[in-house]
Structures are given as structure tokens and as C-alpha cells.
Amino acid sequence: MTEFLSLHDAIAAYVPDASTVALEGFTHLIPFAAGHEIVRQRKRDLTLVRMTPDLIYDQLIGMGCARKLVFSWGGNPGVGSLHRLRDAVEHAWPRPLEIEEHSHAAMAAAYAAGAAGLPCAILRGYAGSDLVAHNTNIRSVECPFTGETLAAVPALRPDVAIVHAQRADRAGNVLIEGITGVQKEVVLAARSAIVTVEEIVPDLRAPSPNSTVLPHWTITAVALAPGGARPSYAHGYYPRDNAFYIAWDSISRDRDQFTRWMREHVLESSTSVEAVA
Amino acid sequence: MTEFLSLHDAIAAYVPDASTVALEGFTHLIPFAAGHEIVRQRKRDLTLVRMTPDLIYDQLIGMGCARKLVFSWGGNPGVGSLHRLRDAVEHAWPRPLEIEEHSHAAMAAAYAAGAAGLPCAILRGYAGSDLVAHNTNIRSVECPFTGETLAAVPALRPDVAIVHAQRADRAGNVLIEGITGVQKEVVLAARSAIVTVEEIVPDLRAPSPNSTVLPHWTITAVALAPGGARPSYAHGYYPRDNAFYIAWDSISRDRDQFTRWMREHVLESSTSVEAVA
Amino acid sequence: MSDVAAERAAPWSSAEMMAIAAARLLRNDDVCFVGIGAPSLACNLARLTHAPDITLIYESGTVGARPDVLPLSIGDPELCETARTTVSVPEMFAYWLQGGRISVGFLGGAQLDRFANINSSVIGPYDTPKVRLPGGGGAPEIAALCRQTYVVMAQTRRSFVKRVDFVTSFGFGEGGDHRQRLGITTAGPTLVITDLCVMRPDPTTKELVVTALHPGVTREQVIENTGWPIRFADPLDKTSSPTTDELSTLRDLQRRTNEAHARGLARGQTPRAQPEGSDPLDRGQIPQVSDPLARTT
Amino acid sequence: MSDVAAERAAPWSSAEMMAIAAARLLRNDDVCFVGIGAPSLACNLARLTHAPDITLIYESGTVGARPDVLPLSIGDPELCETARTTVSVPEMFAYWLQGGRISVGFLGGAQLDRFANINSSVIGPYDTPKVRLPGGGGAPEIAALCRQTYVVMAQTRRSFVKRVDFVTSFGFGEGGDHRQRLGITTAGPTLVITDLCVMRPDPTTKELVVTALHPGVTREQVIENTGWPIRFADPLDKTSSPTTDELSTLRDLQRRTNEAHARGLARGQTPRAQPEGSDPLDRGQIPQVSDPLARTT
User: Fold this and answer.
1) Residue D101 is nearest to which of B1, B212, B218, comparing CB atoms?
2) Which of A25, B17, D77, D112 is the 20 to 30 Å CA partner of A145?
3) Does the distance separating the beta carbons of C141 and B123 come in below 8 Å?
């Protein structure tokens, strides 16, 4: 059964040091509050998995929480680089960062394979790309009917998935609306799943019989975190703070300024940054 | 661009003799009106593909339209046998019927592979089942990461998919709600797709941003066919005619009675049977 | 008291006993992959009695359905309308069944053998069948991918056979560690519930052994209705009789169901009387919902 | 008239010319897989001018988006709110991209070579990069699976190189039939639109050849900004100048976009002035939407 926990307790219970953690949300519903709680709890040696690392992984990497990053696109969307990610890869600051790099198509398929209990995903992928030579987790299989060679990647099965959603009901069933990304897949693929939500309500108010609902028995813990996706957004609740994404470019460019910002807005904040940001 | 055609013209144009046709709809939204039109146009030598042949394929098979059936469960749900299907397999009446038999999991995955442009699907399937020995389209691949053996089936790519849906807008975009089965997959997997609809409306009235909508450029032809799923049902429009499903058992048990029923309700009906049934 | 007299005397039918015995074995936190017929009856009976929060998943994609009447098909409107969510069929089989989310899968069929292998495909040779049955549907993967499976089917010498004509759904194969040798990691058919008794696999050989007799049923009756030399556990349990609440809940559900399924008959049609279970393998004990041919899907 | 003078004299910027030239090449019935930045600008400009029914698909899952302002990210609220439907990301890549439903995919990157291979991964060696770029995102499969791809990127000698440091997205490889030899069945990069010119692959060798110069641009300017001995088609076309309608539509769109993106800045934050494109490979010609590093996703 789903536990209802504070965000602090959920992270403390299910994100041990050195675990493999996937905070997902494709631009939409990025679980910033949960990421900040991981920073505050000084988690170390995490393997961070995420298609688009975005600002949240820039922050986790810059604060030294990560040992390894599995990803497919590591930029600040529409703005430019993730400077903390670059600094870690280019200059090992604040610590070396191992990377495992995929394409979006492969990572999405790998999450789907994880959700589907398969050991691997197959796709028409990576044709002619140098990525193949730098990632031993990109292999191939031969179609037993046509003889074609298809790319294969191992299923992603994180220790813990963390996603943000619009709402949960009191039994712990969760509704996700809008750009749903790989959230259903990562929750079903992971060994445990934490969902932060805007609201806990008596009735989910799913608008359609086909709405994306994760039943309570697929979720380990629900934590109430209104605004928990800011500066990302929650469809139906608040918009994306594009100005903050643009501002992050200069906040994050310099190590000292980054550290100051994190201290002020995350570490010394009793609640998480989205309450002030 | 989607053509708006009468059901007669859509079937005449896109269902040639000897083609591979998939009328899908998992219990819900079964395109009976389209199937009856195929019967009226005396199509021959069809390869019929469908997970659950249901009454509509019992009728097509009994009327001699089919050369081959690709399926995974061929019964009258909750009632018993499909007597025309049995008569064709057991006694070659009215003509021999070749069968290619799968499991639901494999057929669903094969449609998904067809939609995804893959030559095959992989699954943890058919473990220990004798079906493997009787279907050369069940093969295996080895996972290049774990060495596990997985079942593989070829992607399904019918010549034409036929599905029924709640409504289309005037551009030909289609909304499907409720039990969506493999309808999206079969439309995207097929070379052409005919959709019969309850209504053609100015606005689709999709209840959610994540509603199942097939864009007009994925659909070859839309045909208006109110009640076109009866005795199956259309969520939000009319219920399943369970009493007719039960009655079909005796209607279909006897060759002559079956033929009489088809003549009266389908062949000699200027519209299709769902108008009377 | 003769067997027939015992059954006649009991204020419940053997089919009712089977449904009740199966329902009792389900838990409030089970996630069940439900087939039409006896499994659907047992699961909904459990939901309406001791397991109100049980999750029922039907392969049409409905997750958490709470139907007021039993569905005739696997995808009746009632299921989608009462479900928590409805997903596509490819997703159902990939993420929910193959993804290992199901605690109990239900199986039935035309034939079951002593290692709980099930045939729902053909009687006679595959290419020239005596009886062409509906086929496996979801069953081959339900058998392999649910954490465990319960078989619910009426017991006769023709249906409980020494060796099935065709293995549609693999149980324990030739017995012993055959599942493990095929790389199957789930527990398989841990329970067989019939209208006469409950069977469980021997821990080592995996041969089915009767562990409990239903009230009024004798060992001889079981032996007579089993196509192999059936063994009995020692001590042998006895299933408790249905309670008043179980029986009335079951009968209410069936009454509502039969009324609902008789409605909406095609305009202008003159239907025959409700068809008898005239399929050669059908005992037809529970009209409309007990056809063994329809059980697995 | 010197090049600089020509550009200064023109009532439009070279970045505007690039966006307009790209927009013109799109058709009303195209289904486009759109990246952020220049592709999104070009596609929406096409939609707001000659191609009102064009279908724009963003990899976040939004199908048929009709944004009023350009999205900053690939998944801005504007996209989902205006889309015909929004699907999951695994479905987007499997059914829509890999399924062959896209007529035109857009690509850009930090480096492009004479066979239209693209690098958006690293400058320098992969394991010890001089510049770690964002990476491929959707690009490796966009390059292989769209029926054709259009490359839109600003042209400099540093970005148009003889050989890319890293092939993120395969164009024509070593040229000739290299695509076919890898089993790729799509046409690949059939057009490259820069701020100076339009290039197309030679039908046989697949080397990029300049087929049209933008107004005011000279051959010498193109040669100067290309890292390999670039060839010119004969006859060589000239891109028509932007129309008043094209320019005003483009500028309205950008004005709305810049206003929208400046709104909603974090409470209590003191943002710096809008960041300059200080990335080593960024010319920063169109503030906020022209960063080449952000183009492919």
C-alpha cells in the first residue's frame, strides 16, 4: 500500500547513498522539490538517470551528489549549456562524473522495456552514430524474420523513480495530465516509486476513462509538495518559469555564484526553493 | 488527406479481394457495419487478422469471404464457440480456412511493432506452449545483455485496418474513448485505414489533452456509420447487446439457419444489420 | 447418503461451492488478472464480501474495475465505466501482465492434466481437430507471468485428464523443476479449485494432490471424475460450507447479471431461449457464465 | 558594396533570412518533427504564412501543436494546450518517429561536415572533451527515420567543418551510397539552410553543394565561412528577399515570444540581464531562440 510521507521522510527512506535514481518529467512536472530535498540531505554517489538532465540535475551534479549520469540530452532547453554538468565532465568539478549517453529514442524504449519486464529494448536506432562506439550498452540483435540488424539497449530499472503529478486521492492513486513523458514507464520500471503531488484530494477528477492514472499499488510513497515542479510547470496549476530558465544560465556559469545560490535558496531554505522561486 | 466516403465506397476502394484486412476493436467498438458491407460486396480470399474474431469474423468466415485467419482467441465471449469458425476449421465449410494462431500478448505486441516500424516484436511469451510448434511465425531472439531467450513474432502490417470510433471532425481527426484495444496500433500499422464513426462533428470534444486522437493524416477514409458497432457497443453512445451475443449461439449453430439470417439481415438489407439489430 | 443425494440435499450447487471456495482464497491486496466466467464470478464475489479493495484487471485494459453485474465479455461497458483507468491492450499485456504487476492470474480450460498444464486450443490433433476450441487468448502468458495462478474449472474425467491433447498454457510441464528449466520465474498454478475439491501441487513432484474436499463430496467422487490416479493429502481438509452471506451475495450478483444480459436484445430479432451449454465439454451449471470454453478470456 | 555593408543595408538580419528561407520550403501537408530554436521558428512561420495546416510535432509528445508564442523548451505548456493530442514520449519515438509518420525532420548542431553529418555531442575527444555539448537527444533517430531532414544552422568556418569531431547524427557518412549500405531507407539531409545560402547534396557523391545564395551574400562570403572547399551549383539560384508579410509575421512572433519568456520570473530573484550567447559556438543572432546547442531538442 502507498505510504503518505513528508517529502523529507520519503527521500530519507527511499534514496540511499549510491542508489540509482531517476527523477523524470519531460520538461513538464519535473520534480524539483524532491531534487532539492536530495541536495539538502547531502546524498552522495548517486547514479542519476534522466533523459533531459535539465536544471535539477545541473544542481544535483554541481552539489556533488552524483557519481554517474545516464542521459540523452543535457542542455538548458532553448538557452544553452548546463554549466554545472559541463564543469563536471570537462573539469571533474566538484567531482568526476561518469556518463552513459543514449539517444532519446533509446532511453524512452529502455524505460518502456523496464516497465514491461523485458531485459532489453530493440529499436531502429543509432544508425551510423559514433555514440555506439562510446557506450557498451548499445548492442544489436538480428530480426529472426527479416535478418535486419536492430539496435538493442538494456532495460532501465532504477532503484527509485521520482515523479511529480497533479494529484493523488486518499488511497494513493495518482493522476498525471498533459505532457506525460516517461513518467508512467519510470514508475513501473523502478523498484520503488515516490510521487510528489500538487494536491491530495478525495476524488481524482480524471477527465476521461483513458486518463493516465497510476494505481496506488504501483506507488511506494506519496508526498504532498504544492509547487513542487517549479520552475518547471504543472499543467492546470502553474506555468513554466521560462525567465528563471534563462536566468539560470548566468547563475550557474560561475562556481561560487552557483554555490551561493544553492546555499541561499536550497540548503538554507527550510522548505524547498520552489516556495521562493 | 482523409477522404470522406460512404461505407460502400470505402470498402469498395480499399478492400480488394485477397487482401489482408484487420477489423479491430477489443469487444468495444467492433466495426460490424463495415464487416457487413464486406459481406455484401462478396469479397473473397481475404486474410482476416483480429485478436478476437468475435461474431463479425464468424459471419465473414461463414459467408466464405476468408482464406486465412490470424487470431489469438476465437470464441463468443462468455457464451461459447464461434460455430462458423469451428465449422470452417473442423469441416472446411463453406471453404477451408488456414489459421495462424497466436496469444493475445504476442498479437498485441505484433501490432505495436507494426505501428512502430519494427520488423518484429519481442516478448516473454509462449513459455512451454505447444503453440510454438504449430506456428512458424513464433521464433526467438537472445537478449544481447542477459543471454535470456525471448519470443519473437513478426510485426503485423495489414493492407487495410478498419476500426469504429465515436467521432471524427470535419478534417478527419478521430477520437476513440473507453476500451481502446489495439485500434491506434492497427491504424498506424496498416497501409491504409478506414474508420467508421458514430458522428462527424465540428469539434471532437476530446475530454483530456491525452485523449486518444488519430490525426487525419493517419487515416485514409472516414465513413459515417451511426450504430456501426452494434451488437458491440460505443462507449458514450449505446450499450453492448449481450442478449444478441447469447442469441447468436443458436442462430449460428446450424448452417442453413445462419445463411438465412445473413440473407435476411445483411445481404438483403440495403443498410447494414445494425440498423435493425 | 449417496453422492447424488448429498448434492441434492445441499442448499447450494456444486458450481456455487466452486465460486465461493475460489473467492475465499483471494486477499484484499491481491491484483487479479480476471478471465470471464468462473474467475470473474469468484473475484467479484470476493470483492463484494471479504476483499472490498481487491484490484480486478481485465485484459481489455480495464484496471480496478468494480462492475455491478458480471460482464458477459471481457470488455463489457460496465468494466470501463467502473474502472480506475483503462489502458490499451498492448500496454495491458506489456506493462501490467509482463511487467510482473499481477499477484494472481486465473486460468481455466477444456482439459487440465496432473501437472496443471491446460488445453484450451483443440481436442484431437491440431491440424485435424475433433473440436476446435477458442484458443489461448491471454492464457499462455498469464500462466507464465502472474506471480501465481489459480485454476478454476468444473471437474470431470473428460476435463481432468492424464495428459492434455495440447499444452496451451504451461503449468508444471513434466513436473519437478520443469518451469525453472524453461527460465520461468513465477510460482505457476499453486491452486486448482473445482466443484468437488481443492488441489495443490506436491512441493517436489508438482503433481496435483487433493488437499480439501468440498462439503458432501467423497474421495470416490473425486477419483471418478479424475482421469489419472489422483492422490489425497493426509490429513485431508474439508472446505467449510458456504455462509448465508456468501450465498446471498453470489445469488444476488447472478440474478442482477442474468437480468442485465437479457436486456437490450436486438430489435426485431426473435431469439431462441437462452442457449443450453451444448458444447461437448460444457456442463453448463451456471447459465451464461460457466462455459469452460469461455473462461480464459 | 562590401558584404558587411550589404548586410547592414538590408532591412532584415541574416538570421531572419535563414528562418524565412527555411519556412518557405515547408508545405501545407508536411508533418514536421520540430526542434527548439531555428526549426521551431521556421515551422511556426510557415504555419502563420503559407502553410496553415502544417502539422508540428514536438518530441515531448505534442502532436499538431499551434503555439501562439514560440516555446522556449520542447515541452512548454503552450504546446500541449494547443495540440490535437499529447502522447507519451515512448509512443512519440516508437509510433510516430520510428513508425515513419514524419515527412520532414529538422536538425542542427555545433558542427556539420560536407556530407551533412552532424555533431552535437563534443568538441575534442569524447572522453576528454574541450567542450561538452548537450548531446544528441532525438537527433540520431530523427536523422535516420524521418522521410527527409532539413538542417538549419548559422554558417561559420568553425561550425561548417571538413570532418565533424563526432558523428552524433548520420547524414551521408563518407558520401555516395553510405546510407544505403547501413540499411537506412530514408532520404536523409536533402536541404541545408544557413544564414548565407541553401545547400543540397550532390545526387551521386552526396557532398553538399550551394544551390542558392541569400540576397546580398557573395560566393566569397560562403567560401570564407565554410571549412571545406565548397562547390557551387551552375546555374546558382538566388533566394528571393523576404516579403513584408514574412518579415512582419516573423517579428510579431518573436516579439510575442520574448515578452512571454520574460514574464513569470521567479519571485525574489534578481535575474541578470538576458544572457548573451556566450557559448563558444553560439553567434547569438536571435536572442533566446538561436542557440545552436539547443536546436536539436
Assistant:
1) B218
2) B17
3) yes
